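Query structure, 335 tokens:
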């Protein structure tokens, strides 16, 4: 592409700061518009990431109609999704959207239909798919070198009250839907189609915190169509100031221990008398890799690493996990 992509950011909150910082330095990007219901936020983003040259909006339709965007970065909390993506797609604007894409499947399906009808490219912010260690292990599985998938253990531990809206399950979807969804997505990304999920979840530590209705401990057992199994354990009551998200994966021929999506140790277990060890250390900027993938998809007219139609399957998984916890039984899936 000869000219940088004209990009607008919708929702100038916490995660948008990381995306704006990346895009403001990217040679293929030009931040031309910011939109938020709070004008102080758009003004701050404009000064910090566009030297005051971008347009500022409080209405996303006006931004879509007046700013001449090629791409919009949608960084809204889940309860605020009410047609912004669909409006962008109708105008031929490509879309990056942060997870979770919705609080129900009706909205997720509306979004998926909109990008298909508008023939625009989409990328959902499951950044861990771009980690150097995850990418390497995924290639080993796709090539068949890793053999059959077996077991995946995932842990997501933190200890924070977060924003007031985050604590309310009706607005955030709960910890599984809003936060641990990254971990659920990796199980799909590595092990493929899912048969069922069985979940226990409760508010164990925050019953006396006003309007805290999200779960703060949870455990899911995910059964894959291949016969493999994954467990995802979440907790918002662990070590304050630490965000622990690690994974262990066992396949027919490899065992991997991931510190995070960039760093892992992979053990080749094919020769029991000589187990080889591969250390993967990466410092990838996952936000940069996300933007690079979307730009390449637009140029080459291909799917991104996580288009909306694939992200909607992860959305279905976490919503089913919540349904399972409420009903006390497994939920069958075909995703």
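Result returned for the query:
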């Amino acid at each position: 592409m000869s000219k940088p992509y004209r990009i607008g950011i919708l929702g100038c909150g916490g995660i948008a700061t990381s995306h704006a910082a990346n895009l403001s330095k990217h040679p293929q990007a030009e931040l031309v518009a910011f939109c938020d219901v709070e004008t102080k936020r758009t003004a701050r983003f404009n000064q910090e990431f566009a030297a005051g040259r971008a347009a500022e909006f409080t209405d996303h339709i006006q931004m879509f109609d007046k700013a001449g965007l090629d791409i919009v970065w949608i960084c809204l909390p889940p309860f605020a999704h009410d047609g912004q993506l669909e409006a962008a797609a109708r105008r031929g604007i490509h879309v990056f959207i942060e997870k979770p894409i919705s609080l129900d499947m009706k909205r997720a399906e509306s979004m998926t239909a909109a990008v298909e009808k508008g023939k625009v490219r989409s990328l959902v912010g499951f950044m861990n798919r771009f980690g150097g260690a995850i990418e390497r292990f995924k290639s080993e599985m796709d090539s068949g070198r890793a053999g059959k998938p077996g077991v995946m253990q995932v842990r997501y531990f933190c200890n924070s009250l977060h924003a007031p809206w985050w604590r309310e399950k009706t607005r955030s979807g709960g910890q599984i839907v809003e936060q641990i969804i990254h971990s659920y997505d990796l199980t799909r990304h590595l092990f493929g189609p899912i048969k069922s999920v069985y979940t226990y979840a409760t508010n164990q530590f925050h019953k006396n915190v006003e309007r805290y209705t999200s779960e703060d401990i949870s455990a899911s057992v995910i059964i894959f169509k291949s016969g493999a199994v994954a467990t995802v354990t979440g907790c918002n009551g662990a070590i304050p100031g630490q965000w622990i998200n690690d994974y262990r994966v066992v396949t027919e021929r490899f065992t991997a221990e991931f510190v995070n999506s960039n760093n892992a140790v992979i053990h080749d277990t094919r020769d029991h008398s000589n187990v080889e060890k591969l250390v993967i250390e990466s410092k990838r900027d996952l936000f940069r890799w996300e933007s690079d993938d979307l730009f390449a998809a637009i140029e080459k007219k291909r799917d991104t690493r996580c288009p909306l139609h694939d992200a909607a399957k992860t959305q279905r998984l976490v919503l089913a996990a919540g349904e399972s916890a409420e009903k006390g039984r497994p939920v069958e899936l075909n995703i």
